[in-house]
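Need tokens for this chain, all 239 residues.
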Amino acid sequence: MKLVGYIRVSTDRQVEDGFGLAVQEKMIRAWCRQQGHTLGRAAYRDEGYSGTLPAPERPALADALSEVEDGQAAGIVVGRLDRLARRLITQEAILAQVWKNNGRVFTADQGEIFQDDPEDPMRTAMRQMMGVFSELEHSMIVARLRAGRKEKAVQGGYAYGAPPYGWQAVSGELVEEPAEQVGLARARELRAAGASLREICRRLEAERFPPRRSDRWHPEAVRRMLQHEAPYTLRPRTT
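Here are the structure tokens for all 239 residues:
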């Protein structure tokens, strides 16, 4: 069976230690070989996207699901179910989308995630319990990170997660990233001229302004980039 692989790490890369993109892809490929399935291409990768986001807001996941919808792949495979979603409602929506298009969902650690069966209500209950605990784990991680960031901010460091496109954190301070600043300025110029998000994607790629965490630009990534009109304001250092 031809499948499409999907791998993801969140914005806060440190919480993914031990299960990064390379580990996930290796796990997926090993499982596919063992089960006799094939991957049509390298796994789609969302680097820096939370699993709480719906599919349309994760560019690589949207592309992977499109392959299933178009019949290019019979299903999607992930390392673990929490790579697909970190929120129960998001998990169920993504699964429903795949099943609606006659696709199948697999995880390398547990095998196929089956559709609901009216004669087996425990199947649905167990799947949704996995989603509930995944969401709980995510909430606890976020709470710990928030506490750590507050402490870091008090000490005068940059404490707001991954810097937006056009900026980088250096020694606890947010500074401009020259090449990305040029691309950011170009995107704003195109938007001001009335270009759609998709048109901006095409123009940035044609003019060789690469995105930070993907092979190509996606409308959602451009929208998020343009939301940051100015860099974050850092709290002054205390002495």
